[in-house]
From TrEMBL:
It comes from the Archaea. Signal peptide: none annotated. Homodimer. Residues 27-276 form the NAD/GMP synthase domain. Pathway: Cofactor biosynthesis; NAD(+) biosynthesis; NAD(+) from deamido-NAD(+) (ammonia route): step 1/1. The keyword Magnesium applies. The gene is nadE. Catalyzes the ATP-dependent amidation of deamido-NAD to form NAD. Uses ammonia as a nitrogen source. This is NH(3)-dependent NAD(+) synthetase. Keywords: ATP-binding, Ligase, Magnesium, Metal-binding, NAD, Nucleotide-binding.
Amino acid sequence: MSDAVAATNDLPIDLTLSDDELDAHREHITQFIRRVVDDAGADGAVIGLSGGIDSTLTAHLAVEALGEGAVRGLVLPSEVNTEGNMSDAERVAELLDIEYDVVDIEPIVDAFFEAAPLENVDDRIGSDPLRTAAGNVRVRTRGVLNYFVANAESRIVLGTGNRSETLTGYFTKYGDQAVDCNPIGNLYKRQVRQLADYVGVPQDLVEKPPSAEMWAGQTDEEEMGLSYDLLDAILVLHVDGPLSASATASTLDVDDSVVARVDELYAQSEHKRHLPPAPDALSL
Ligand SMILES: Nc1ncnc2c1ncn2[C@@H]1O[C@H](COP(=O)(O)OP(=O)(O)OC[C@H]2O[C@@H]([n+]3cccc(C(=O)O)c3)[C@H](O)[C@@H]2O)[C@@H](O)[C@H]1O
Ligand SMILES: Nc1ncnc2c1ncn2[C@@H]1O[C@H](COP(=O)(O)OP(=O)(O)OP(=O)(O)O)[C@@H](O)[C@H]1O
Ligand SMILES: [Mg+2]
């Protein structure tokens, strides 16, 4: 394990996976990807590449599972993505030797806002709720492009959701969630970084602060108001685990309000983890 991954591990709970466990996850995930593609009768996979760790690790494991010829990358910059992240996304595609396209989504997003049924969009877009709504439009636009390629070329869309995001609802409903499978969906964020490090993802990508890039300068940890390492510990001990909220707070030596905040994120995002509900069938 690199120093950068080890250094963050200063909590009284150790989520660090052993090499045997990392090998087991690697094998389990690559088998999963092969099975999903085979079961769908698809010819391969398509994945959005953002230069972040989730898509980088997922693409890496997809190439291990399917071979580089069966994986296609889409790098989809908008005006809020940094050039650094977009060139990292291209670097990942080149390191993995996969076919990829770069498509500027801003003209699509511009056309959308011109047609959108809202007053004074330009004046309101800098602050919520429009800032998040606009970010979600960019995220959903990427989903449309992913599915266009999947439909046209008989591919499945690889998602990059991890367990920390799923449990907190930290994703756009029918945006980056609109995928055919989530190969790293059973790994907490810290474990994503660790597995990425283990399979040889470049260090600078492993160490980069996670960002949804929904607006300029956004980082996940700032928006959520807590670090992934602390979030993961609360998820493992409490949301997925057996400890009460107060026992979790005292184990981690944090205020009860921190655990309450995670409980709130979990409860408020319940709807994102299910298919849309409908009333029960009536027998008339
Ligand atoms: N109880 C309920 N039952 C059924 N539906 C419910 C609902 N509450 C809200 N909704 C629906 O859900 C909508 C809100 O959900 P949604 O549209 O997703 O929007 P929302 O959750 O407000 O925003 C997405 C969040 O995910 C973050 N994100 C997005 C994309 C990528 C990443 C990343 O890590 O890369 C992070 C982003 O920064 C932001 O915090 C509401 O407008 C409403 O339509
Ligand atoms: N500019 C982009 N071009 C193509 N795909 C993108 C872009 N931005 C986001 N995505 C897709 O949306 C997914 C969700 O973004 P998210 O930020 O959660 O993951 P990430 O960028 O891979 O990792 P990190 O959390 O470290 O930033 C990405 O993994 C990627 O598949
Ligand atoms: Mg990102």
